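User: For my dataset I need records formatted as: sequence, then structure tokens, nothing else. Please produce one.
Assistant:
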Amino acid sequence: MRELWSTSPKAYSAIASIHELANKEFCGSRDARIQQCAALFDRAAAISPEAGVALYSLGNERLLERATRELVALMSRWNLFDAAADVLDLGCGSGRCLEALAPLVHSATGIDISAAMLRMATRRVARFVNVSLVRGTGLDLSVVADRRFRLIIAVDSFPYLVATGVAENHMRDCSELLLPGGKLLILNFSYRESLALDRADIAASSRQYGLAVMCNGTRDLELWDGATFLVERPPR
């Protein structure tokens, strides 16, 4: 703990500032809530891009890298991607997962509503020719409707989709964007502090959109306590 504190001297101020932003409830129309969400991440990027995408990193780049490597290792053990896979990172933030996945897959596409986060992601993945970035509407995934993916990942992004009232739109679109046999990996579905509600929502959406639930709220990581939800578009 002493070493962590000494290597993250600005951790408390960064986390406190971002936590204060994140604790403000979205209000107004759906479009207004989406704009408030985008503004939240624009401001978080200015405070700390590392803490802005993962508070548990304490704004420490090395800790965030370790957590990212652990997540990619889990996806690899579960055979969620290979060198031929096209991957979509829903809510890609600063591009940390795109950077880690790019050397391992055929292509990686990141989508986000925060212009500030996308600028950071652009710099992070600039050396990879197989990575593309798209600014989404926040309402759905229509901007990538012409693409199909072997894997879609959503790392701590669905809680904001739930809060802005567009989670169902994204579950629908994910089901359409997945290739047969493709997987959707969600790390944290909401911040409602009820795993039972999250599991029920995942099960209901999966039934509605023809997806099969493989993991429904398990804890599979050591460096982060995010709940894992994995669903599959059944092979033909």
